[in-house]
Each structure stands twice: as structure tokens, then as C-alpha cells.
Amino acid sequence: MPRTILVTGITGFIAKKIAYDLLARGDIVRGTLRKSGRSQEVRAALAGLPPEALARLSFVEADLMTDRGWAEAMGGVDGVMHTASPFPLSKPKDESQIIGPAVEGTKRVLKAAHKAGVTRVVLTSSMEAVMHGVTSNPMTEADWSNPEAPTCSAYTRSKIFAERAAWDFVKAHPEMLLSVINPGLVCGTPMDKHTGSSVAVVERLLSGRDPMQPDLDLPVVDIADVSACHIAALDSPDAINKRYICAESFANFRDLAAALKANFPDRKISQRLAPKFVLKLLALFDAQIALILPMIGKKMHLSHTAATDDLGVKFTPADEAVIRTARFLAAK
């Protein structure tokens, strides 16, 4: 019998893929939207599904910052995929603009689920809540980012505090069954052109905008693997009250540039190393560079063994995930 799954923030890059995969396997999907007018955008992104699958898709208008709509959203739901959260490309003037919606939104969704008697929740967190200020080699799910680490941005703190709030809620309400997925930089093939901030990183590399590349390592994961982790976590009793690193590996910008150059030889993609003093100068004029400056030269490794063992996910190599994104961008 098909289950009804609520996907919060269904217009998101990750959420659309999860919705597609849930519908494809026969589930009923209800998505929350801040503005109901964007429902056609989601339907267009999922148009590759057969009509009978799309008939199992519906929408509810609900905002993370207000209670309106959440009781309706939770009615008759068997499980919740809470994916909604802000993701800025540049440093916000006021951190509360990012942290507030992430933390309060997570608590609001969990409270609404609890009130409706919905106990099964899968939360989309981030590697940002795992990797900052951590010295483990490799890092595992036992690691938590230090919000005071010099590499932490407002977005990082929003993910740390939102995930902490979720675990605190579950501790106070042990009947709630939570699983947390911590994706890295999400690449792969998007469902549509509304790709969000993570794809912009690949777009920047592919554009040849930068004459040099930073010595920057980022955890990379394919969007298909992110969706697979969420759905497997929803299904598996072994995933209850656990968090999962959802990334294939840390990949260096220069290695990713080399992979892209090999696949797009006509593009002017530089593989030269950018000296840190140059990046410091550029950071004065480029908010994106300023955001990554504290991470330059920092080498990290991760283990995704838990996701492979518990969830059965075999991760796509990082360079292949990035190439898939580039192919999508080039085609569009």
C-alpha cells in the first residue's frame, strides 16, 4: 500500500529529486511551498513521470517562519522529508536571516509532525554540520562542526544549530523516529534549471571565469545518491536515530577543474594553483572567495561506510558527479 510522504520545500534542488524518486516507486507525495504559484514549476520538473504518478502529487502552502498551513500539511502523512532550508551564495549582512529560518523552521516542522502523530522524519542537514574544526581522519558521523571554528559561515552555523535542535526535540520526545542525512556539495544531473547554490560552484569552474583555482577541498556527492540516502533512511529501521555522511569524498578544486577540462577541452578552464595571498586580495572584492578563504589548504577525509552499510548506497565518484552537472549546464 502506498505511503503518503510530506516533502518540505519541494521546489528545492534535492527535494525535487526525492519527490521524483518517491513518486516513481509508487508513493503519494505532498509538497510544501512558500508560494502556491510555484507548483507548476515542480510539475514541469517531474514531467518525465507517467501521468498516474503525477496524479499522486499534491501541494500545501506553508512557510517555515509561520504556523499557517503545517497542520494541513501533516494530515494523513506517514513520514516527513524535511529538506527546506536557506542556502546563501554570499555572506548575509545579518546571520539571523539564515539561522533563524533554519532553526525555527526545523522545530516548527517537528512540532507539527508530533502534534499530528507523525513520528517518522528524515532531515536534510549538511556536511557543514560535520566538517568544520574537526581533526578526525577520516571524519565520521560522530564528528560535529564547531560553530566557533574560523571556517564557519552563517550557513554553516544554521545547519549545525538546526540539526542540534532536531536532536534536542527527539530527546525530549523519544517517540519521534529521526534520521539525518548530511550531504556535501550536491552535484549530478538536476531535475530542472532551478538548481540552487551548489550547482553554481560547477558553473563557475566550467565558465573559465577564474585564471587560477584555489587549493580547496569540498565533499562532493551526486544528487541521485542524496535522494537514495533519504529514501533508504525512511525505509530502514536501522537508520532510526542516526545521522549519515552523504558524500563520496573530498575533492580538490584543481582535480575537478582537470576532470572538466578533459571532458570540455574547448573551455578555458584553468588548472593553475591560486596563491593564498592572491585569494586574500580577491576576497576583498568577491564575496564567494571571502566565504571559502578560511578553508584554503585544509585537507580532510571522510568515511561514508555507515551510509553504504545501513542504506545500501554505492556513491558515484566525485569527478563523475561534477561532470554530470557540467553536461547539464552545457546542454542548457
From TrEMBL:
<dbReference type="GO" id="GO:0016616">
    <property type="term" value="F:oxidoreductase activity, acting on the CH-OH group of donors, NAD or NADP as acceptor"/>
</dbReference>
<comment type="similarity">
    <text>Belongs to the NAD(P)-dependent epimerase/dehydratase family. Dihydroflavonol-4-reductase subfamily.</text>
</comment>
<protein>
    <recommendedName>
        <fullName>Ketoreductase domain-containing protein</fullName>
    </recommendedName>
</protein>
<dbReference type="InterPro" id="IPR057326">
    <property type="entry name" value="KR_dom"/>
</dbReference>
<dbReference type="InterPro" id="IPR036291">
    <property type="entry name" value="NAD(P)-bd_dom_sf"/>
</dbReference>
<dbReference type="InterPro" id="IPR001509">
    <property type="entry name" value="Epimerase_deHydtase"/>
</dbReference>
<keyword id="KW-0560">Oxidoreductase</keyword>
<dbReference type="InterPro" id="IPR050425">
    <property type="entry name" value="NAD(P)_dehydrat-like"/>
</dbReference>
<feature type="domain" description="Ketoreductase">
    <location>
        <begin position="3"/>
        <end position="193"/>
    </location>
</feature>
<dbReference type="Pfam" id="PF01370">
    <property type="entry name" value="Epimerase"/>
</dbReference>
